[in-house]
């Protein structure tokens, strides 16, 4: 028995020393599916980023497009047709070649509801295609009209209406190109733990223990150079405090989505480096036009003026957020109007007067709904809502704070008459303002405030059709002014999610879009 | 005994069917639907409606006048009777597959937690009863009070911070270290690694089990200690114990042989009840310790309104509780010859 214990202790010491080539990431949960095109959650996309390449990539740390599986892409004159030239000599992890057939297979599989390998009968939805590309084959609203193989290395996508953002959309992490052979082989199981997801990406899928971890190994023949670590382990650790514990104990190498209030604790640990991810989100307050008070524009303006956004952001984001008067995050400042002030004016006295002029000298009573869950843009919604309520009570508006279960919250906000005022937000999918405005002001996104302006719809159309950045900037500046003056949605924050790494982790450049491939990360002197 | 068992098992089957109906109606009565939950911030009414249709959630629950077989519950039950629990709405993973990997994780954790509770709870209760009103008694009572009242998630984080981050003795969470691989046989990692003769993996699995087992076992420990104490005190006051003492039997024989065996009956009942409660406690413990078990899985499914997962998880949990109850009943007969099942 004693020998056994001794041996066991010895082995334990051995097992705690990890191989230098294993990079361990602490994710805030488990992936849902490893089938590209069929998920929308951040962790699935993060894992997919390692396995799959998209046609177009992003320059590290930015939302600017760079070549990936497509070496170049070009539109016709009015941006109704896009031609992609594909990279040659790229192979999927299963050894099959990447070519135009593979691209056409993937694109039509997502878009065509009748595709034999779409497995729609098994509950596949590919909802993101409906969401970002207007709909599916045969839908009047579908952006895509046709996907055509021109030759082995060229694919053309014809569109139903002009779209200059099509390359940005197709570059989003959802649209990783998978091996058609693997999809045909695994059938409806493809993407579940019982399958082997196959892409062209920097890492090759090894195993997935649901609820626990995904293990990947380096793709030694990767077209963009061999990854700098041999193995990547992505562990699901839901609790943010526990993720920090794991990082401090050295059982994971880097992690994201820590709560802003742990910044000091990270900075105080000499083994750790705090990483502020670039902000690519907006947390805002929606004001409902169906509410008898809020349908008055001056009341909405008074509300926006009464809230001390800067103080709130300072207090609850610990320096990890900025407050401005724009729906788009600061990296897309080019899309903002110079006529709109950098931030909403905070002036309770003027707000109170404006409220009195609108006919409510004694204020009124109103509901404010806050989210029951933590999101990067609102890490702790309840105290933020309390601060907003306190600011509003200073001008006489009595706020009743309300919340409910997240699934119900998401449903109820879209019911008429809906919530009077409510907190919500958005994290971007691709680097174009269309994604931010379109999500809430677009033709599908507006039933939560009972206001859907024709002007906004027209501007959104124009933005999508604009082919030069200058033309785009002009349209979005106009949209910015119009929505700012309408004051239906009051941006509160663009937050920089807090991440952290062990000091030996080198080369990690977090993407503003939420996740990136880990092939450039190395471990220098990890013990 | 044989016919009793058959009757019990038949009754269990009926109960399971009843539960399938109750949970079917219940999950669909919770406001908030799966399509909206799945779409998150993107959920517009149009998108949600389209998704609901794709998922077949727009079909009637029990009866479709156009096509009687095309309703949700009849389809569900007929699949259930063939052992098919469906697949998760979000993940497309068959519920059966997930149960197969997640239940062993919960079982292993629960067994360890119950083992911990008995290992410390029983002696504490016995000591407290035998040395009634002593320092030991007060200590045991205080500890069990603290154990019952301490929130599991807080205790879990505290244990993890202290033993993993500060002292570095144990891993903070998960079932295995980053380099350890175990090819599952039963899914119970400690057992599997032993069966495969991989002592290193077994040691790793055991080390990962310690903190979550303590967190999950703290409440049953406290309850076991309290019940053991009061039950043993009861028995010690009985005539036959006095007789045994008067006969001149020594301290150990009286307390442990005569009294303890009889005092254990209520303890067994409590252990049986706690086995059910452990499934509940596992929700928090598994979330805190990233333990890929059934608790965190069903919890997540509830917030996502993932109907097949919730239904499958609840039906399975009910089955486990029924089986544990049956075992408890059978063990009464073993402990007390006066109890017989016919």
From TrEMBL, chain B:
Q: Where are the transmembrane segments?
A: 12-30, 109-130, 142-164, 209-228, 263-289, 309-335
Q: Which UniProt keywords apply?
A: Cell membrane, Membrane, Transmembrane, Transmembrane helix, Transport
Task: Specify the superkingdom.
Answer: Bacteria
Q: What is this protein called?
A: ABC transporter permease
The similarity annotation says:
Belongs to the binding-protein-dependent transport system permease family.
Source organism: Deinococcus cavernae
Q: Keyword check for DNA-binding, yes or no.
A: no
Output the GO biological process annotations, alphabetical, semicolon-separated. transmembrane transport
The UniProt entry, under Pfam families, shows: BPD_transp_1, BPD_transp_1_N
For whether the record's keyword set contains Cell cycle, the answer is: no
State any GO CC term. plasma membrane
Location in the cell reads: Cell membrane
Known InterPro entries for this protein? BPD_transp_1_N, MetI-like, MetI-like_sf
Q: What is its main location?
A: membrane
The chain positions of domain ABC transmembrane type-1 read 103-332
**Membrane topology designation:** Multi-pass membrane protein
Q: Output the Gene3D superfamilies linked to this UniProt entry.
A: MetI-like
